[in-house]
Task: structure prediction
Amino acid sequence: MKTVIAIASAALACACGATANAASPFAYTLTGLYNTGVDDSGAKLADAGATDTHYVLNGGAAGSPVTYQDGAYVVAPDAVFIAAQSDGGYTVQPNIYTLTFTATGDLSSAALSGKWAVDNFGTIDLNGHQISSIPDNGTFGSLHGFSAPSADFLPGTNTLQINVGDSGPPSAFVISGLQAGAAGAVPEPATWAMTILGLFGAGAMLRRRHRPALSTTA
Result:
């Protein structure tokens, strides 16, 4: 029984997909999605001064963005705010941050979702189409959901652009929970079907393996 449970748990984990960059449970795959202020494994960087290598600041001309966490900012469980400078300062307005990722497969059902906050205001665009905006109303103390529809995706390289404006330093933003699929999305029915078939097959093998031998005594 313990073996069956272990196999079932492993199969379900594979079907659900742990991160945006894991094997996709959907009919499409989005590779290269990262929250702000994380390393290549998705672990959070230090709260101040750590370089974010996934997001590009102002086309790369202004150096790389760095982590910055103000006491008034929301603390995301899986991300850190990033800014143009380690003290939250900047030299130009607005600051434009970009994240490039790759989309493959059947994009007719593609979607991505996440949450974000910004000091002070900004927008998120996917391939030139605005998918979210936050006005200048001091809402960097909480996270706000966003999502992108299938029509905004391109085969191959895609660009997520965050335009950050400010009414006075510091200025920073955070993206948390960035993932393929809409918030709370479930895998394609075919994926679940394959998982269920695999569980039945594993159970049948274990039953044959542990079936007691028939007695041959007269």
